[in-house]
Amino acid sequence: MTASRRGDHPPGCGLHSATVPVPGPVPARRTPPVRTCVGCRTRAEADDLLRVVVVDGVLTPDPRRRFPGRGAWLHPDPECLHRAERRSAFPRALRVPGKLDTAEVRAHLHRAREGTSGVRDTPGSVIEESKVDPS
Ligand SMILES: [Zn+2]
Asked: pLDDT tens for residues 94-104?
């Protein structure tokens, strides 16, 4: 009869060897959150982007990320702001109907560009410990 060929795969063929490389625990380097710039659609670390929120219908820069709710992320770059405006990316990202005035954000970018790192926005209500929605 035909010989069964079942027994003839060589021992230690490698497929079932125990030395499977295990991905292992992630080293204690925390990966920074990544967001997408609404202007150029490039992904970047959240630290490199400016968070923008809507407060009372006004587009407001939120560099300290303390406003709750939905935020849009933008490179602190007038070019990206310009692109976002053209594509009405802010209303879309923030789920706000209609156009949004980007004057505040533009002014913020101007200040940032001039090197005055002092962000002097002091909104009346300081929201502490609020979970920022990672939108
Ligand atoms: Zn950008």
From this structure: 999 888 999 99
